Amino acid sequence: MNPQNNQDNTTGRLKTVLEVLAEQPGAVVSGQQVLTVAVVRVPLSEWESEPLSGGVSRGIKRLSAATAKLVKDGLIVKGRGGWAITAEGARVAAAPSAVAVAGDFGQLLGGKTWDPAAPEVQMAYSPVSQQWELTVELPAGFFLYKVALNRSWAENYGAFGVRDGANHELRHDGGVVTFRYDHASHDVAVSALDKALV
């Protein structure tokens, strides 16, 4: 059996629920309509399509139950009239699912050069700084890079946070360097660990 046919995509559909509600800010939308659109955008796997008691598919049941977490986390509100997104939910919906610092140093990190999907250049979100961060070790050199969202070049930011802008430049003496991406400004801050401190 193809492992993708046995896949659980509930987490991806929860993000889609937020996106669907964020597309209609301030509106109250039927919960059934939201779930239907979420399944259209993130189709059910073979395993999720299997009907359970009552004839409802496993994927729909899992998604419906999982939306309780969105309510608990203060991201959506459910009422008799339907569902609505909160301000925090809209902020989460707008956030990228992945941020990469892709450039000509990708191969030095074990990935591919200028590959926004390479695991080696994916940044991690820090709830403390509320920024995306990646700390790596690079040799001395001059490097070019951009920030790419959601593992593709469809949305990318260059110097000064300009969409599709000029490449960022990094002149590096060698050693550990941390990239920090601020999604509000779309810009990157870079800090290097002083070799003398190592």
UniProtKB/TrEMBL annotation:
Database matches in InterPro entries: Ig-like_fold (IPR013783), X25_BaPul-like (IPR054409)
Record-annotated Amylopullulanase X25 domain positions: 99-187
GO terms for biological process, alphabetical: carbohydrate metabolic process
UniProt cross-references to Pfam families, sorted A to Z: X25_BaPul_like (PF22058)
Superkingdom of origin organism: Bacteria
Protein name: Amylopullulanase X25 domain-containing protein
Lineage of origin: Bacteria, Bacillati, Actinomycetota, Actinomycetes, Micrococcales
